[in-house]
């Protein structure tokens, strides 16, 4: 497995190089530049703007600009944020923790709910409860994320006042205390439920169908004929095999959730990487845009690797070499 991991990591290098070219090219194809988003042309002399563009290297060739950016990225220097007046890596450090908390919480919501509903529905196919769960899944799967976010924000935050409307920390909470961490979780739970709701519907349906299919196989019928208790059949034979694909989805979900958090964070005014990405696009803060895009690509590649490794761990029939 170690050799497989090393080969995959080495194989990511040329792919990351191609991704960096695409990310840099897309950023440069966008209209304007960082100075366009930062400077008010009515109160700034054109000579000053031209001098700043020359100083920052915006007048250099595209190849030269890309090479300078790539060298800085390898050294951990992703440039400065012109809007926030600080290094990009430091700015991401302030936001990444919030996004990771949101992603992990939404993963817990997804797998707990999908496990409970999928198991319940798979053991009772064709019943009224099963039909209700299927109908709920199709309904939840069909609603766009931004619509669900707005409705949840209006109902639970504004009307019922169960959760905060925005932010990650309540005012006056001291950092490092128990109240501090409880406040972060309190602000995260509603965006996490919304973000995890989409995957919950899909995984519940997947687990339900797999349990029904597995229960009709010969080895299950043989176990039933031998008088094996139903609970043991489901726990040791059916559910264990049905959970294998879902476990391997964890790695893919980690990369997907960071990208999917862009919409949820923006609507809930949640200060994470997703909302920072949208704000940076509108403000033409291209150093931040390129760094976040590259981060999402790297996370997706690592997620694919984690999925392959998990598949080999949970299924002994698979040998990773």
Automatic annotation (TrEMBL):
Keywords tagged on the record: Cell membrane, Membrane, Transmembrane, Transmembrane helix, Transport
Residue ranges of the TM segments: 12-30, 100-120, 132-157, 185-207, 246-268, 288-314
Subcellular location, principal: membrane
Key word Methyltransferase present: no
Annotated localization: Cell membrane
Cytoplasm as UniProt keyword: no
Any one GO BP annotation for this protein: transmembrane transport
GO cellular component terms given for this protein: plasma membrane
Annotated ranges, domain ABC transmembrane type-1: 96-307
InterPro entries: BPD_transp_1_N, MetI-like, MetI-like_sf
Membrane topology recorded in Swiss-Prot or TrEMBL: Multi-pass membrane protein
Annotated family: Belongs to the binding-protein-dependent transport system permease family.
NCBIfam families registered for this protein in UniProt: Opp4B (NF045472)
Name assigned to this protein: ABC transporter permease
């Amino acid at each position: 497995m170690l050799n497989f991991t090393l080969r995959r990591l080495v194989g990511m290098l040329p792919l990351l190089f191609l991704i960096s070219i695409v990310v840099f090219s897309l950023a440069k194809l966008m209209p304007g530049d960082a100075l366009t988003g930062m400077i008010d042309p009515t109160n700034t002399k054109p000579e000053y703007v031209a001098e700043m563009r020359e100083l920052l290297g915006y007048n250099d060739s595209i190849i030269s600009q890309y090479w300078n950016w790539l060298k800085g990225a390898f050294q951990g220097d992703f440039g400065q944020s012109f809007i926030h007046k600080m290094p990009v890596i430091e700015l991401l450090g302030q936001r990444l923790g919030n996004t990771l908390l949101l992603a992990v919480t939404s993963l817990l919501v997804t797998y707990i709910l999908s496990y409970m509903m999928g198991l319940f529905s798979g053991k009772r196919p064709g019943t009224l409860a099963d039909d209700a769960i299927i109908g709920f899944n199709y309904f939840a799967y069909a609603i766009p994320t931004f619509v669900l976010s707005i409705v949840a924000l209006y109902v639970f935050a504004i009307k019922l006042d169960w959760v905060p409307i925005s932010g990650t920390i309540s005012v006056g909470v001291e950092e490092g205390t128990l109240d501090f961490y409880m406040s972060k979780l309190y602000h995260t739970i509603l965006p996490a439920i919304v973000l995890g709701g989409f995957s919950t519907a899909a995984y519940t349906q997947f687990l339900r169908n797999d349990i029904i299919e597995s229960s009709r196989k010969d080895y299950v019928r043989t176990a039933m004929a031998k008088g094996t208790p139903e609970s043991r059949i489901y726990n040791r034979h059916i559910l264990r095999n049905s959970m294998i694909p879902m476990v391997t989805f964890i790695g893919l979900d980690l990369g997907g959730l960071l990208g999917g958090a862009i919409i949820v964070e923006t609507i809930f005014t949640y200060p994470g990487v997703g909302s920072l990405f949208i704000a940076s696009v509108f403000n033409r803060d291209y150093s931040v845009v390129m760094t976040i895009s590259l981060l999402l690509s790297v996370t997706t590649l690592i997620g694919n690797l984690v999925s392959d490794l998990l598949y080999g761990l949970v299924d002994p029939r698979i040998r990773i070499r």
